[in-house]
Design a protein that fits this description.
By secondary structure, this protein is α/β, with parallel strands linked by helices. It folds into four domains: 229 residues, 3-Layer(aba) Sandwich (Rossmann fold); 134 residues, Rossmann fold, CATH 3.40.50; 250 residues, Up-down Bundle (Rhopdopsin 7-helix transmembrane proteins), CATH 1.20.1070.10; 233 residues, PH-domain like (Roll), CATH 2.30.29.30. Helix content is 40%, strand content 18%. The strands form six sheets. Strands 8-7-9-10-11-14-15-16 form an eight-stranded mixed β-sheet, sandwiched between helices. A hairpin with a 2-residue loop joins β23 and β24.
Length: 1016
């Protein structure tokens, strides 16, 4: 019957309605739309829905209720051009205003019309099902919370296409998609599915972004340049047809290409001029599979469909379907099962359902009632879309579309061999031939790398043999032969890693290269750290002879560093081993690389990288701390240079970790050049000086032997002149001392550090000063960790609270510091240290050899009781009427200096080099005083004495010792009471030079029996 709102009411297969509740279901379709395909879809779908309602009512599927269909035309039938969104909304409102309301809606045919009607039904919490609208826009549950459908969405086409690509063995492809929301969603779906199947999308391009074909040419140009030959068109309708037509015109639908589209597009393409059936050979088209022959539910449906009267049920009466009849039938059956599940025999709920007020229990997930119909299992997700769809693959062969594959509920199957454009059944390659960028072993760059690395490995092996054979030589022994060999092994591993980086790597190489690179780096840097640590610990205490750090202790340090590093790599590679990966770029090039940072390997890489950087920073810090001991330890400067070189190389190579994939050659050349340069420079700088010095010693030894055999008399002559040449058989230095008893007394003295007395500017007061050699650490209060020990000559002026430090061998480079107070910092054995608090930002640590000297210098710096030297000589101030500044003036009326030199106590032989520098420094100090007077050397001038503190063979000369003294000046009148030393650590008492037999103007020298002296 027809209602007042032009709706048609149908109640199939019901003869008696007493005691039953009527459930109205609206059917919203464009019945009057003048289009053959739409008419077929509309009327065949309505027939299937009516057949389903008849079964529901006959079987009393909803207990206590029956269903009545309310058919409503969503097209006004008068103006097709204006029968759009407005008419759809009007028809929906009219349907919902049906007397008593509707409990559910089925429709519409097109996605554009369904979007409007579903928006209204969802607002009123009325469930709506569509059997033909596949737009992804309807999956938004914010706007369409009560909408679901029995047909797959366009997004599911992407999964089936990827299944077909994977079945052919193709690993890369191109994708075209429209620039609208649907195209973007389809592109995202295809990307996700391709990633799951390990398929690379080598080229992707959006077109039709402005609603026209203006950007189609640019999209196709990019395809040709990319080299991709497997093409997926993720578009439907006009954009898809325009793109395919232009591709045919350009010859891109040809022998080397495979094109895949959604839905059958051959008929509209053949309607375009100049396109022949042969031009579309090998085209693959994916469509919804509506006919599931052999599927029992579908066969049962066909049996019922064939029994229907086509006069009452259009398009029925045969065992065949014309469109979406199975999906329309499933829509009605799903609604009915959902109603029955929501009511569950409850009378109140049944009346609420009939009035359209049970919407809270009729959302898409409530429709999952395990129903399986002619269209397959009806299982819905949260968005109301079916989880599984059924698809068919058509292959265009010689002018007709042939089904070659199907996809049932997510399972893809190729039923017959597909044919390609050239008429063969051989699948073309997925891309044009690619140029591999990995340098081969025989390529020019490969030959250069192998040559440099090979020669360096040979040099390292030869050097290792020399180190082992001459391990007892002084230059090798000083550098620790064991650690030299470990460093050489590290260099060899680094060179091997550069060779392994050539050519296409194998799976084993992906593991071997990072291992050799990392272990080689760790061997070099950890041994450098260990040796630098030994130097740092030794020279942190300035008295090096008391410090012994054995190789076994350093091996523990190296072993610990290596163990932590290898443990990290072992866990990393056990959990996520490196994998071989091929990267294809857009310019028809590709390269193979070992992927070590993917997935769970990234945290391990970050930890290992941070660990290596920290170790390199420690090495740099130790090299900086040891920068001032290079003169005492001949390898420190080399180690420092190597550390700085490694640090610089690492900083240059660091950006290669973050370069994009397209910069492979830049990354390869930069990393290998830096690795080869840094490794080679470090190797040569570490070992060439050692080899040069070793062979130079061999050469000098041979020359010395030849010289000794050719002139035996030269030694005898030298000894006669130097030792017995003095008067009465006495040496020159002894005759210079005049044989005085004072000299003999001083030779037996303990050797305290002397004091330098000078007159002040007024000429009536003697200032007290003390000089000594000691370890000094200049410590910045804000960064104390940057300071290190160094030997300095210190001159203290206690009364004015300042002191001057001179570098050894550089008397002109002194600096003066004032201080506030002094304290004993440490009295531990081998660590007797004073702490002098400066007035600026520096404090000073002064280290002496023993506790007596510690207390002595503490008393001098403290100076609480005034200057004993000044008090003891104050009565004789008129005798010493000048100061050092006056002595330096050319116009001074003083004629000469009286200098009494006192030898220091014994030095250890291990510090003879330092003592020689100290001798030269002290001589230079006396040179600042203009009065010529021989010091410390036999009949030699001060300048000659300061020129060299060592003999020709490099050892300290006979009689070398450090001297301190009182430097005073006298006028033409004779000195009445010259200063002298009678106490070990004080200068309060005096001994007359005249009483000791010493003549004015002569130097009081120590006897030659004391060659080794002690510092303060």
């Amino acid at each position: 019957m027809t209602g007042v709102n032009n709706s048609l009411y149908l109640t199939p297969n019901i003869t008696k309605t007493d005691g039953l509740v009527e459930i109205k279901v609206g059917v919203l379709l464009p019945y009057s739309l003048p289009n053959d395909l739409t008419q077929q879809l509309t009327y065949s779908g309505t027939s299937a829905i009516r057949m389903a309602v008849g079964e529901i009512n006959a079987k009393n599927l909803i207990p206590g209720a029956y269903i009545t269909l309310v058919l409503k035309d969503s097209f006004n039938g008068a103006d097709p051009e204006n029968s759009g969104a407005g008419q759809a909304i009007f028809s929906t409102v009219s349907l919902l205003q049906t007397e008593g309301g509707v409990s559910g809606v089925i429709g519409d045919v097109s996605s554009a019309l369904t979007v409007q009607s579903a928006l209204l039904t969802s607002r009123l919490s009325i469930p709506q099902c569509s059997f033909s609208a596949g737009s992804t826009q309807l999956s938004s549950k914010e706007d369409y919370g009560h909408f679901f459908r029995t047909i797959p969405t366009e997004l599911m086409f992407g999964r089936v296409m990827i299944d077909f690509v994977a079945s052919r063995g193709w690993k890369t492809m191109a994708v075209f998609y429209t620039g609208d929301a649907l195209g973007s969603e389809m592109m995202d779906s295809i990307s996700m599915q391709a990633k799951k199947r390990n398929i690379n999308i080598g080229y992707r391009h959006a077109f039709w972004t402005m609603g026209s074909s203006s950007d189609v040419d640019a999209a196709l140009d990019g395809l040709k340049d990319s080299g991709q030959q497997i093409v997926v068109v993720a578009a439907v309708g006009v954009p898809q047809i325009k793109l395919m037509a232009e591709a045919v015109r350009r010859g891109l639908v040809g022998k080397n290409y495979v094109w895949m589209t959604i839905n059958q597009v051959t008929e509209p393409l053949l309607d375009i001029a100049n396109i022949m059936p042969a031009d579309l050979n090998g085209l693959f088209m994916f469509d919804n599979m509506l006919k599931l022959h052999g599927y029992p539910p579908y066969e049962e449906f066909l049996d019922k469909w064939s029994e229907m009267n086509p006069a009452e049920y259009p398009y029925s009466g045969s065992r065949d379907i014309s469109s979406n009849e199975a999906q329309a039938y499933s829509c009605m059956m799903v609604l009915a099962n959902g109603f029955a599940n929501a009511v569950k025999g409850n009378w109140t709920a049944l009346h609420l359902l009939a009035s359209g007020r049970l919407g809270s229990k009729l959302r898409p997930m409530s429709m999952n009632t395990n129903y399986t119909g002619p269209a397959g299992p009806m299982l819905f997700d949260d968005f109301g879309d079916v989880v599984y769809g059924n698809f068919i693959l058509y292959n265009y062969q010689n002018g007709r579309a042939v089904a070659v594959g199907t996809s049932y509920s997510g399972v893809f199957n190729v039923s017959s061999p597909p044919m390609y454009f050239d008429g063969t059944y051989i699948a073309p390659s997925d891309s044009a031939p690619l140029r591999v960028l990995n340098p081969k072993f025989g390529s020019p760059i490969g030959v250069v790398i192998i040559a440099i690395a090979g020669l360096s490995i040979v040099f390292s092996v030869i050097t290792m043999v020399i180190v082992i054979l001459h391990r007892h030589a002084q230059v090798i022994k000083a550098s620790s032969p064991l650690f030299c060999c470990l460093e050489l092994v590290g260099f060899i591993l680094l060179y091997i890693s550069t060779i392994l980086g050539l050519d296409i790597p194998a799976e084993g190489v992906c593991v071997a290269r990072p291992l050799t690179l990392n272990i080689g780096f760790m061997l070099v840097v950890s041994n450098i750290v260990a040796k630098n640590f030994r130097v740092y610990r030794i020279f942190h205490n300035i008295y090096v002879t008391k410090r012994v750090i054995r190789d076994s202790h350093l091996l523990k340090i190296v072993g610990t560093i290596m163990f932590v590093n290898i443990a990290i790599m072992a866990v990393w590679f056990a959990k996520t081993p490196p994998t071989l990966q091929q990267v294809t770029m857009g310019d028809l090039t590709t390269y193979f690389t070992c992927n070590i940072q993917s997935g769970t390997g990234t945290p391990f890489f970050a930890v290992l990288f941070a660990y290596n950087v920290a170790l390199l920073l420690v090495a740099t810090y130790l090299a900086y701390k040891n920068r001032n001991v290079a003169a005492n330890y001949n390898e420190c400067r080399q180690i420092a240079f190597v550390v700085y070189n490694i640090l610089l190389s690492g900083c240059i190579a660091l950006p290669t970790l973050f370069l994009p994939e397209g910069q492979y050659l830049t990354s390869f050349f930069l990393s290998n050049i830096v690795l080869l340069f840094g490794t080679t420079v470090s190797l040569m700088f570490m070992f060439l000086p050692k080899l040069w010095k070793l062979f130079s010693e061999f050469d000098r030894s041979g020359q010395q032997k030849r010289a000794d055999s050719s002139d035996d008399r030269s030694i005898d002559s030298f000894l006669h002149n130097r030792v017995g040449g003095g008067e009465g058989g006495r040496s020159g230095w002894l005759s210079n001392a005049g044989g005085s008893s004072v000299a003999q007394n001083y030779s037996n003295a303990s050797g305290r550090k002397g004091s330098v007395g000078s007159l002040d500017d007024k000429g009536d007061t003697l200032k007290e000063s003390h000089m000594g050699y000691m370890g000094v650490k200049f410590q910045n209060r804000y960064a104390p960790f940057l300071s290190s020990w160094c030997m300095r000559r210190v001159i203290l002026y206690p009364s004015d609270k300042y002191f001057t430090c001179f570098e050894l061998g550089k008397p002109e480079s002194g600096r003066t510091y004032s201080f506030v107070t002094v304290a004993i910092h440490s009295r531990e054995p081998d660590s007797y240290i004073l702490r002098v608090v400066g007035r600026g930002r520096f404090d000073f640590l002064l280290q002496v050899k023993d506790e007596d000297r510690l207390l002595h210098w503490f008393a001098l710096f403290d100076n609480k009781h005034g200057s004993s030297y000044t008090r003891s000589t104050k009565t004789n101030s008129n005798v010493y009427k000048s100061n050092v500044s006056n002595l330096e003036r050319p116009d001074s009326n003083l004629s000469y200096l009286d200098t009494m030199m006192v030898p220091m106590s014994h030095l250890s032989t291990g510090l003879m080099q330092i003592r020689s520098e100290s001798d030269a420094t002290l001589h230079g100090f006396h040179q600042m005083v203009p009065a010529p007077h021989p010091l410390m050397r036999n009949n030699s001038s001060p300048s000659a004495s300061s020129a060299s503190g060592r003999s020709e063979k490099g050892s300290p000369r006979r009689g070398d010792c450090d001297y301190v003294g009182y430097v005073g000046a006298r006028a033409q009148s004779q000195i009445q009471q010259p200063p002298a030393i009678s106490d070990r650590f004080t200068s309060s008492s005096r001994v007359s030079l005249q009483e000791s037999g010493h003549q004015p103007g002569a130097s009081v020298m120590a006897p030659p029996s004391r060659q080794n002296t002690n510092m303060a």
